[in-house]
Design a protein that fits this description.
49% of the residues lie in helices and 0% in strands. The protein is built from four helices and no strands. The radius of gyration is 18 Å and the shape is globular.
Length: 104
């Protein structure tokens, strides 16, 4: 039997699948550590918004949304509901699209 017949065909990845690969739900949240004290309130708000935008961008990329033009506010909010995050504001949705744009 030829060696090529013994090798198994690899599973499809997101780029080769005919339909979007099912989104894996988060396994276990990372252990939270307290944020550094003494910063202005705006710093904490921006920091948490960036973390939320990163989580949403990763979830969108995993679900097959690769272009910022595909990520409308409704799509981002639907993904937030799917992964168990509070619905993002318009500012956070804009930040998600910016992260997807600059990751290319």
């Amino acid at each position: 039997m030829p060696a090529a017949a013994l090798t198994s065909k690899p599973l499809p990845t997101q780029s080769t699948a005919r339909r979007p690969v099912q989104l894996d739900l988060p396994y276990a949240p990372v252990e939270k550590r307290p944020l550094p004290p003494g910063r202005p309130r705006d710093w904490y708000i921006t920091h948490n918004r960036r973390l939320k935008a990163m989580r949403l961008a990763i979830a969108l990329l995993d679900s097959g949304v690769h272009l910022p033009t595909q990520a409308r506010n409704e799509t981002i909010r639907g993904t937030a509901e799917l992964i168990g995050v509070h619905p993002p504001s318009d500012t956070t949705c804009h930040m998600v699209r910016a992260l997807m744009r600059y990751s290319r």
